[in-house]
Specification:
Helix content is about 35%, strand content about 25%. The N and C termini lie far apart (about 115 Å). With about 170 residues, it is of the alpha/beta class. The radius of gyration is 28 Å and the shape is extended. The chain folds into 2 domains: about 30 residues; about 100 residues, no CATH class. It has an 8-stranded mixed β-sheet, with no helix packed on it.
């Protein structure tokens, strides 16, 4: 009988501590229930970008990625973002997918333009730059170095054959 009471009290303490951690996590993170302004952007590639990723302007988080969908007509990825209601984006704002550090997660960086008119809520960000694949860059660099090395060797060999014989003194 004593063990049942002890187990019940311990279970209650565990639930109380778990509830405390949930409240603490909710209040200390940037998860807010208030809505923001929604914008859309279209990209050829969104490698590594996911729902919930940061949207930053000048390195400061101003929103999150709400959804990522593919347009079945032209196979372009459409990203929907939610930004702080206080942030108004000029019409010539650009969006680019950036890696946080060398091997970090991806986020969407917004670079505001200088236009006097703003994008309407729910509007499209026209200027975008897609994600750059680190693997393709490394592959390109490796193969470009190999082929340029072969060209130099071939050129060096060809130069000695094509060079006229120099007169001997």
């Amino acid at each position: 009988m004593k063990t049942n009471i002890l187990e019940t009290v311990m279970g209650g303490v565990v639930l109380l501590v778990a509830g405390f951690f949930l409240v603490f996590a909710y209040t200390t993170t940037s998860v807010k229930t208030e809505g923001g302004i929604t914008y859309h952007a279209r990209f050829d590639r969104v490698d590594g970008l996911k729902v919930g990723s940061d949207v930053r302007m000048s390195g400061v988080k101003i929103g999150t990625i709400q959804s990522i969908k593919i347009d079945p007509k032209d196979y372009i990825a459409e990203v929907t973002i939610s930004a702080m209601p206080t942030i108004k984006l000029p019409k010539d704002t650009s969006a680019e997918i950036i890696t946080d550090g060398l091997l970090g997660s991806k986020y969407l960086a917004l670079v505001p333009g200088g236009d006097d008119e703003n994008i309407a809520p729910g509007g499209m960000i026209s200027y975008t730059q897609s994600s750059v694949s680190l693997e393709s860059l490394i592959g390109k660099m490796m193969f470009d170095n190999k082929s340029s090395g072969k060209k130099e060797e071939t050129k060096a060999e060809g130069d000695s054959k094509d060079a006229p014989d120099s007169p001997k003194p």
